[in-house]
Amino acid sequence: MTEDNRPKFSTKFGVIAATVGSAVGLGNIWRFPYEAGAHGGGAFLLVNLICVVLIGIPVVCAEFLMGRSSRRNIFGAMSSLAPRGGKWWRLAGFLGVASGTLILSFYAVVAGWTLEYLFQSVTGNLTAAGVRESHTEFSAFTAGWRCVFWTVVLLAINAMVVLRGVQKGIEKASNLMMPLLFVLLIVMAVNSLLLPGADTGLRFLFSPDFSQMNSATILSALGQAFFSLSVGLGTLTVYGSYFPADTRIVRSASIMAGLDTMVAIIAGVIIFPAVFSFGMEPAAGPQLIFEVLPDIFSQMAGGAVWSTLFFLLLLIASLTSTISLTEVGVAFCVERWHMSRPKALAATIGFVTFFGIFCALSFGPLSSLTVSGMTIFDIFDYVTSNIFLPLGGMLVSIFVGWIVDSATVDYELRPAPRFLRGMIVFLLRYLCPLAILAVFINNLLG
Ligand code: PHE
To answer: Average pLDDT, stretch 38-44?
Structure first.
């Protein structure tokens, strides 16, 4: 496809809505609070912020510019931007596409849970459950085939949007959903702040406890930054390939990272005051949102309304992210294998549904199928977030820092001031790959 007939986002707002939509998702509202809860609250937040600014933003810029200058998906971008067709670099691109599909497989399962919880909230069942039954209900729900059903429903909604293409599907859906998401976030945060004892939750979130900090905290904070910013697997490359020529890459990357981090912090502000106010455990792990929050909603005044709003928020956040993940596979199939968009979509969704079912069943029928204590779901989550994404991020930074023609990089980063462009290239060349490597090695030895 040439530059001219490739679809593009039609407005500046569309660019921001789509990229922030990809970034803001379960990673902010589901993953960030339990990771922070498990790794010393504020200490985790601080390390996460450093990772976002020094490593995240440069890699986001790198992905955007790879997409825009090549007008291709990550596989095609790595082949066309590397000298001599980038035989080896294409493999890195392929790793990106593969990890996108794997992430989507477990991500769609959790996003499917939000559909069930939204449904239960609207019908009033969720908040009628009463204290401590939420735990049993969550286990019963995730152990059964019902959660497979919701995974499939979620993927179907997702497919309907992606089928309509870049402007009428992705951009339009993001333009509608992102403003609603911010309104919901603010309303819910105000409600949490008004709860008695909210300050204990805020102190937990914001005061760093450095005694909890070790190499695992740093790896998790980096993994979280990558996961949350959607970097390392080509999502942002494919979105970058739809940027109009006048989109300012550094500015867009900074706005995206800023809003993404803000949403994670607001999610913390919604969740921790409520957790402490109702005397619950902050380090409840991946179940924090699905077990602890329903208990809280069932004791809160107007709980059914709050739980409906909360799970609607979570659904919107996860949909805009699954859309971007699906587009990675779709763009790859269209460009590499010349499939039509509907066929490429069917292939991607078919693949994801297959793996998704295994992930969904790992809470029930397949729960005994484990490797060193991890279920299939845990393996997908761990391997993609802690290995594939950082590895992908490292390859992207080396690629743009060292391999892509530096005049192209500089041109794409304009009109950012010269100092900033130089700084980004410096970080991509040295700090990003070395920091990611150091965290890896440290974790392997530790
Ligand atoms: N950034 C998304 C989130 O925070 C997840 C995601 C990861 C989406 C990688 C696309 C690519 O939920």
So the answer is: 84
* pLDDT tens readout for residues 104-132: 999 999 999 999 999 999 998 887 755 55
Whether the predicted pLDDT of 3 surpasses 60: no
Pocket test residue of 26, 60, 321 for ligand 1, highest count of atoms within 8 A of CB? 321
Distance CA(352)–CA(106), nearest Å, equals 9
Closest CA to 384 of 27, 139, 52, 43: 27
The fold of 12-445 is Amino acid/polyamine transporter I (1.20.1740)
Q: Let me know: does 174 contact 14? Beta carbons within 8 Å.
A: yes
The pLDDT value recorded for residue 1 is 44
Distance 226 CA to ligand 1 centre (A): 8
Q: Which residue has the tokens 């549904």?
A: 353
Residue 2 has a pLDDT of 46
Largest CA distance in the chain: 64
3-state secondary structure of 206: helix
CA atoms within 13 A on the CB side of 105: 29
Helix/strand/coil percent split, the chain, to 5: 80, 0, 20
Sorted by sequence, the CB contacts under 8 Å of residue 343 that are 6+ apart come out as: 333
Distance CA 35, CA 40 (A): 9
Dist. CA 323 → ligand 1 center (Å): 10
For residue 324 and ligand 1, the question of a CB distance below 6 A is answered with yes
Confidence of residue 38 (pLDDT cuts 50, 70, 90): confident
